[in-house]
Amino acid sequence: MSPLPPQVLSPLDGRYRSIVTELGEYLSEAGLNRARVQVEVEWLIVLTDRSLFGSAPLNPEQKAALRSLVASFGQAEIDELAELEATTRHDVKAVEYLVRRRLTTLGLDHIAELTHFAATSEDINNLSYALTVSQAVREVWLPKYRRVIDALRGRALEFRGDAMLARTHGQPATPTTMGKELAVFVYRLERILAQVESNEYLGKFSGATGTFAAHVVAEPSVDWPAVSREFVEGLGLGWNPLTTQIESHDWQAELYSKISHSNRVLHNLATDIWTYISIGYFRQIPQVGATGSSTMPHKINPIRFENAEANLELSSAILDSLASTLVTSRMQRDLTDSTTQRNIGVGFGHSVLALDNIVRGLGEIDIDRAQLESDLDSNWEILGEAIQTVIRAEVSAGRSAIADPYALLKELTRGKRINRDDLVTFVSALDIGEAAKARLLELTPSTYVGLADPLVEYLG
Predict the structure, then answer these.
(1) 377 CA to centre of own chain
(2) Is the separation of the CB atoms in 319 and 256 below 8 Å?
């Protein structure tokens, strides 16, 4: 058997590439290296703006030329960095050498020794990861997450008045509406949305052990913490003043835990919708040309929600691992975070793939009102709760002498199927006030939904 040509191992880079490709702009090796170039360039500008170590401020054209190294970063730079790293065996050093080469090209050799000045690799890396992760979240993950919320809100509003039999513990229970049940998920997801939107993205730039030691010995008169803070905040990040060699990664753990939490809520949504499909509350809309089963032509499998389930589980497994491992670094530094952080894109990729499937899935289902009504009409015993509650209110008000309303209804309904006629006969004979009796005689499983419809208004 002849060997296959080189193949990708991850389905994110193969089968599902078109869905997650936007993440590659930020969370790929190339995206990380572009951010590293950005950090190196901006640090050069900070140093020269202060005329440190014999330098002079660059003119606007020189600054623009330096920043164009980031804007024009592409395949040529990717290939060149691969060539450099083959020699350096160090990815950040390769970036430093690339920047130095470009300084020569731009006629800026006189500031070459300020490249990577007083910086450890982690000074560059932590800022680069903060930049790429924040951009990936804001530009890719959040817009897709909001699309899910918007699609779900639309369906919640559409189905707000559609009564359905609830199933607590999987058993027939007090009715609700499909819209209210979907609104519950919208509310949950919006809370997490606010938390993700407010997440901090922190950075440090304080040298090999977080003490500014090299900075101070090179120039004692400079307020290096102030310079560091201005530099980090100038990149759009929060400044962390107290670190070891690494930024402590707590903001990452917080973010990944929030994304993982959202995954689990979405997983709950996917399994609920899958179940509603299986019992006929939702019917799936056939997609032109699609095959549900390789052997059973009648089937439309709920593949969107099954695919989402699996990818949400994979995403949470990776993000949970990141959140738990990144917060620990032996004393001042170890390299466990180096290889771990290279999988950030994988964790987000599986989440984005799931979000895409859920949005598509929500657009490929419709409610089966006849099935909802049939289920309700087959379970009149669920009105036992309403009847015994009204009896208790009547007893309390002095309009009934019934001794144990709960036991009375338990005897009538527990483990039994009863119909409308059974309930009418039972209610008509009750020792309760006429107004209460009239309300109960008008009640049906379809109308016993309380405030389910108006509760949807809490979505805003």
Answers:
(1) 39
(2) yes
pLDDT category of residue 300 using cuts at 50, 70 and 90: low
Active site residues: 169, 293
Instruction: Kindly indicate the confidence band of residue 291, based on its pLDDT and cuts at 50, 70 and 90.
Output: low
pLDDT at residue number 294: 46
* Gap between the terminal Cα atoms of the chain: 62
CA atoms of 207 and 58, how far apart (whole Å): 25
Whole-angstrom distance, CA of residue 284 vs CA of residue 355 = 18
Which residues have C-beta within 8 Å of that of residue 35, sequence separation ≥ 6? 127, 128, 129, 131, 132
pLDDT band at 301 (very low <50, low <70, confident <90, very high): confident
Question: What's the pLDDT tens digit per position in 167-208?
Answer: 999 999 999 999 999 999 999 999 999 999 999 999 999 999
What is the arithmetic mean of pLDDT over 121-125? 96
In angstroms, the CA 267 to CA 272 distance is 9
Q: Please, how many CA atoms are within 13 Å of residue 341, restricted to the half-sphere of its CB?
A: 24
Cβ distance 320 to 256 under 8 Å?
yes
Two tokens, residue 397: 């008000």
Range with lowest mean pLDDT among 6-20, 31-45, 403-417: 403-417
Give the alpha-carbon dihedral of 268, 273, 278, 284, to 10 degrees.
Answer: -150
**How far is 64 from 321, CA to CA, in rounded Å?**
40
CATH topology of domain 122-285+310-373: Fumarase C; Chain A, domain 2 (1.20.200)
CB within 8 A of 366, min separation 6: which ones? 282, 283, 285
Architecture field, domain 380-444: Orthogonal Bundle (1.10)
Q: Which stretch of 156-160, 302-306, 335-339 has the lowest confidence by average pLDDT?
A: 335-339
User: What is the spatial distance between Cα 206 and Cα 293, in angstroms, rounded to a whole number?
Assistant: 59
d(CA 167, CA 447): 17
For the chain, what are the domain ranges?
Answer: 18-117, 122-285+310-373, 380-444
Nearest to 351 by CA among 251, 275, 266, 250: 266
Task: Supply the DSSP string of 207-241, one letter for each residue.
Answer: -TTSS-HHHHHH-TTS-HHHHHHHHHHHTT-EE--
pLDDT of 348 strictly over 90: yes
Cα 312 to Cα 301: distance, rounded to the nearest angstrom: 19
18-117: what CATH class?
Answer: mainly alpha
One-character DSSP codes across 269-283: HHHHHHHHHHTTSEE
- C-alpha 258/C-alpha 256 separation (Å) is 5
Judging by DSSP bridges, how do beta strands 171-177 and 202-203 pair with one another? unpaired
Question: Average of pLDDT values for 96-115?
Answer: 96
